[in-house]
Structure formats: C-alpha cells, structure tokens
Amino acid sequence: MSKRILVGVDDSEQAAAALSFATDEWPDAELVLLAVVDPAGGGFAARRGVSTGTEERYERERTEAESRLAETADSLEFDGIVETATTVGKPAAGIVEYAGDDGVDHIVVGSHGRRGISRVLLGSVAEAVVRNAPVPVTVVR
Fold first, then answer.
1. Alpha helices in 1-141 (DSSP H)
2. How much is the pLDDT for 41?
3. Looking at residue 2, what is its pLDDT?
4. 134 backbone dihedrals φ, ψ, rounded to 5°
5. Cα(141)–Cα(131) distance, rounded to whole angstroms?
6. Helix (H) or strand (E) holding 139
7. Phi/psi at 6 (5° precision)
C-alpha cells in the first residue's frame, strides 16, 4: 500500500522545494497538494451582514488557488497519484485538520527559514504544523 503524502502548496519557492522533495522522496506515493485560502487575508467580512465584496474576493482567491493547483499537478513529472484540494482557514490549522480528517500518512511543508524576532512576530506555519500534526512532518528549507 502506498503512502499518502500531503504537501502544503502556495506560490512560494519554499512550497516548490517541499513539492520537489516529496516527489523525489516518495516516487510511488499518492500526493495530495493542498492550498489553504486564509480568510484573514481578505476573504471574509469581519462582521456578518456587511456587504464589502469580500465574498466575491474569497471565491476568486479560491478559484485561483484551485487553478494553480491544477497547473502544478499537471506539470509534475511524477509516476504516483496526484490529488489536489483546497480548504479555508489559517494555513497551519488547515493543513493539520486536513491531515487528520483525510487519512494522510505524512506532511511535507516548506519553511521560509526566518529566525529571531521576525519568526516571533510573523509566526511560523511550519512550526505550528510540526507541533500539532497527527502524523510525521518534514520541513524543507
């Protein structure tokens, strides 16, 4: 039985490195490419009932994420199965929740490699995934 590997995907070089690592490390696995649309990034109105155009922006962001995932999956030179998925939420929580709910064996995420005060102020998606994931996690820099 092949492993089911979840790779967190966005437009960053770090996510591309994570995907490259996953395809090299598990050439026969089932890869799940996951994009998390963050509502704090402007996708949802802060209060219900307020018409701000955020629902339309959210739908556009989700559609764009799905399109990028499809392009990424199509461009892979990979012999295994590739599945794509999008979810809504904070990136780390979305990755952890998806892994717990969808039978993932391993998670691969990229890291920006921040250190010191910038890491404290900006947070670390990779660190939050490592701390909360129900399965092993590989962080690629």
1. 13-25, 54-75, 91-101, 116-122, 125-132
2. 58
3. 76
4. -85, 0
5. 17
6. strand 137-140
7. -95, 125
When pLDDT is averaged across residues 29-33 and rounded to a whole number, the result is 97
Residue 54: pLDDT band (50, 70, 90) is: confident
* Closest alpha carbon to 125 in 88, 89, 91, 87: 91
CATH class of segment(s) 4-140: alpha beta
Q: Which residue has 């979840």 as its token pair? A: 6
Q: 107 - beta bridge partners?
A: 6, 137
pTM of the predicted model, to two decimals? 0.85
- Would you state the structure tokens that stand for residue 84, as one six-digit string? 């794509």
Average pLDDT (70-75) is 94
Q: Which residues pair with 83 in a beta bridge?
A: 32
Residue 43 tokens read as 């996708």
Domain boundaries, the chain: 4-140
| Calpha distance 65→48 (Å, rounded) | 24
> What SS3 class is residue 140?
strand
The β-bridge partners of 6 are 32, 107
